[in-house]
Design a protein that fits this description.
It comes from Dissostichus eleginoides (Patagonian toothfish). This is Trigger factor. The chain has helices at 5-14, 35-44, 50-58, 61-64, 136-144, 165-168, 218-228; strands at residues 18-19, 33-34, 71-72, 83-84, 87-88, 96-99, 129-134, 158-161, 177-178, 185-194, 200-201, 208-211, 229-238. It has one domain (63-238): Phosphoenolpyruvate Carboxykinase, domain 3, CATH 3.90.228. By secondary structure, the protein is an alpha+beta fold. Helix content is 24%, strand content 22%. Strand 4 and strand 5 (87-88) form a beta hairpin.
Length: 239
């Protein structure tokens, strides 16, 4: 079997063949590690805990995750300028991103996501990136339903996020938790795209907010949220 140079290195490290997910099931065959499983191995240690870990964190892997779009930033240190939605984009260096299943999810199409592949420039119609540090339970609730306005009201009631990873990862936002599966401690941050037409940049520009009027019905709030801010990745980092 032919292995490119990257897979040869992984083969030497693991003593097993590493190959991409099957294009039909996005799962690897028995006793063969996929590239994503390799990264889970590096992050969580025990490959047998992979399914249990995702069930512990987010309940239903097939429903909520799209592993072919995962990306490992854990050893990434590039600080080159990058843009999304014609605004600066800070890549989440040091974190592992598990992609959420958002392709085709919204009625206005996928233009807000931009084009796939590695790039540093913006494309027409895509939205800027923001981050939202939260608790494990908070992340689970947002992924299963949608963002909801929190208790923070410094700049008005609404959904707060930031373009700055240093802000998002602060302990008062990204709360440390311990996995029952691995026994290790982690933080979790949601990576979003945010609609620039519905976002308010606060007086302190490291905070962005989607404001809510009082008295809106639950269905109206849901529609507003889904037009305004869309999580597309879960960022995980061992502490």
């Amino acid at each position: 079997m032919y292995l490119d140079s990257h897979l040869r290195v992984l083969f030497l490290i693991l003593g097993q063949i590493v190959k991409p997910y099957d294009t039909e099931t996005w799962k690897s065959t028995h006793n063969i590690l996929s590239v994503d499983e390799f990264h889970f191995h590096q992050l969580f240690g025990n490959l047998q805990a992979h399914v249990g870990y995702l069930e512990e964190f987010f309940i239903d892997e097939k429903k909520f995750f799209d592993p072919k779009y995962d990306y490992d930033f854990t050893n990434f240190s590039d600080t080159a300028e990058c843009m999304r939605g014609d605004e600066p984009y800070e890549r989440p260096n040091g974190w592992y991103r598990m992609a959420l299943k958002v392709k085709g999810k919204y009625p206005d199409g996928d233009t807000w996501l931009g084009t796939k592949g590695w790039r540093s420039h913006s494309v027409a119609g895509e939205w800027p990136v923001s981050y939202h540090g939260t608790s494990l339970g908070g992340a689970r609730g947002i992924i299963k339903t949608h963002y909801k306005a929190g208790a923070r009201k410094k700049y008005g009631r609404g959904i707060y996020s930031t373009p700055d990873m240093c802000v998002a990862k602060k302990d008062r936002y990204a709360q440390i938790f311990t996995s029952n599966t691995t026994g290790k401690s982690y933080k979790v941050i949601l990576q979003n795209r945010i609609n620039p037409e519905l976002r308010l940049i606060c007086t302190d520009p490291i905070y962005w907010v989607i404001r809510f009027m009082e008295g809106l019905s639950a269905s109206t709030k849901k529609q507003l949220v889904e037009r305004a801010i869309r999580p597309y990745g879960i960022l995980i980092r061992e502490i």
